[in-house]
Design a protein that fits this description.
This protein has helices at residues 2-10, 13-18, 51-63, 66-71, 75-78, 82-92, 97-104, 109-139, 164-174, 190-200, 212-222, 226-235; strands at 20-22, 26-29, 35-37, 42-44, 47-49, 210-211, 239-241, 247-250. The chain is mainly α. It is globular.
């Protein structure tokens, strides 16, 4: 979970748009962490694909598109209001201004053009801000390294104002036998709780779903109050489940 988030936030814009990165022996999906080994051919519906093409097939099949995945992230991550999100989705679908006007029930075409202008202004601001931050990195020798924000976070605020140094101290206190051992206590502080949950969720395999009994068994091995752990993992956006609560998976 931690590696997926770090790759996601630290990638280049070109890789971000593709939705995957290339390493020496594999391609890695930035959206879910799936790895595809190079030098192997993959079959999908009786069609054979080389590794990189198969990664693009995976993104289309599982995530629909990189655009759809990104635009559906929490609004605190995209910076888009619900109204702007609906607009850019229609623009992405190739709708004309008059079609967007009808779909959104907006009064006039000039309002659509104004929305386009506002989005373009946000783009310009984002480019300038990214350049400022890149230049700042070269000079700011005292900037702390913060823990990475998981992409499915449901509470994006100062709970993540935790440096990697603080994270190590919290983990040493909470896991006296190491991070794969039992949790001594569940911290009350929200920041500390997130640090603990980030470690606990690594005990789940992103490639499969789990029965509730399996989830309980894994969490009970980590901490006596497995019910609270399970609830927090869902509340904070680490785990998801079906409506019946019978199946769980990494969100």
């Amino acid at each position: 979970m931690k590696d997926i988030s770090e790759r996601f936030w630290n990638t280049s814009m070109a890789e971000f748009k593709c939705g995957y990165i290339e390493e020496k022996y594999r391609f890695i999906c930035l959206l879910c962490g799936m790895e595809i080994e190079k030098g192997i051919v993959y079959a999908e519906q009786e069609v054979i694909y080389e590794a990189e093409r198969y990664m693009r097939v995976h993104i289309e099949k599982v995530h629909h598109s990189v655009f759809e995945y990104l635009v559906n992230l929490d609004k605190k991550l995209t910076g888009l209001t619900d109204h702007q999100k609906a607009l850019v989705q229609l623009f992405y679908q190739g709708k004309s201004d008059s079609e967007v006007q009808a779909a959104m029930k907006i009064g006039s075409l000039s309002t659509i053009r104004n929305h386009r202008f506002v989005l373009k202004e946000k783009e310009r601001q984002a480019k300038v801000f990214l350049a400022i931050m890149e230049l700042l990195k070269e000079k700011d020798k005292f900037a702390p390294a913060f823990i990475s924000l998981h992409k499915t976070a449901t509470m994006v605020d100062d709970r993540y104002n935790v440096t990697e140094e603080e994270e190590e101290r919290i983990l040493r206190k909470c896991f006296s036998e190491g991070i794969n051992g039992p949790l001594k206590w569940l911290p009350a502080k929200e920041k500390h709780k997130i640090v603990v949950l980030r470690v606990i969720v690594c005990r789940f395999d992103r490639e499969r779903s789990y029965e509730e009994s399996e989830v309980n068994k894994i969490l009970r091995a980590a901490y006596d109050d497995h019910v609270s752990l399970r609830r927090y993992l869902i509340d904070y956006g680490f785990l998801d489940r079906n409506a019946e609560g019978s199946k769980y998976w990494l969100k």
